[in-house]
Amino acid sequence: DIQMTQSPSSLSASVGDRVTITCRASQGIGNFLAWFQQKPGKAPKSLIYAASSLQSGVPSKFSGSGSGTDFTLTISSLQPEDFATYYCQQYNSYPLTFGGGTKVEIK
Amino acid sequence: EVQLVESGGGLVQPGGSLRLSCAASGFTFSSYAMYWVRQAPGKGLEYVSVISSNGGRTYYANSVKGRFTISRDNSKNTLYLQMGSLRAEDMAVYYCARVAVTGTFGDYWGQGTLVTVSS
User: Fold this and answer.
1) What confidence tens digit (pLDDT) does each residue in B37-50 have?
2) Which candidate from A44, A87, A94 shows the least CB-CB separation from B59?
3) Which residues of B touch A99 (CB under 8 A)?
4) Cβ–Cβ below 8 Å for B50 and A94
5) Alpha-carbon distance B24 to B37, whole Å?
6) What does DSSP say about strands A10-13 and A102-106: parallel, antiparallel, or unpaired?
7) pLDDT for B104
C-alpha cells in the first residue's frame, strides 16, 4: 500500500498568513493526488485534483503543486473560513490512501 | 445540483450486519464510479470501497475485504454498502462520494451516516 505522510499534523496561523502543507507518498504516484478540506461535523470538500488543478468553485487562494512523491497545498492568505483540517489522498493505485490530516488553527 | 444522501446508519451489535444506502440526484448516476469513505470518531479519513459505473468492478480496503460488499442499482440511482461481521473498529461516519469523469475521487460528497458498533 502507498503511505501518505502529511506535515505538519497541526499548525497555528494568523489571518492573512501564507500557509503551506506538505504531503509525501511512499512511492511515486505521478500527479494522482487530491486535497480536501474538512470542517468539524461536515463532509470533506474537494479543493484540488491532479495535484494542481483547482476544483470548480474553489477560490484561487488555494493552490497545489508537486508530482511523483512530494506535494504541497498552499493557502495564499488565510481567512477565518479556512480554519479546518486538510487531507491529501492518492488515487494512483488501490487501495486509495489518505494522509493523516493537517489541522489549521487560529493563532 | 448534485446531491448525495446517505441513510441506514445506526446502532448495531458486534458481529451484526447493516446496509447503508446513498441516494444520488442531480447527475447521471449510471455514468459515474462511486466510493465509500469512513471516519472514526476524532480520526482521519479512511477509504472503504469503490465501484465502477456499471458495477462490474469493485475494490475494497484490506480492513473490510470479505466482510463488506459494495453494490449499486442504477435504475434507482442508489449506491449501497452491505456491512457484515461488524467490529468496534468499524464504528465511524460513513460517507459516499462521487468519482469525477476526470478520474479524480470525491468531487462531491454526501453528509455522512453514523454507524455505531456496541453491545
Assistant:
1) 999 999 999 999 99
2) A94
3) 44
4) yes
5) 16
6) parallel
7) 85
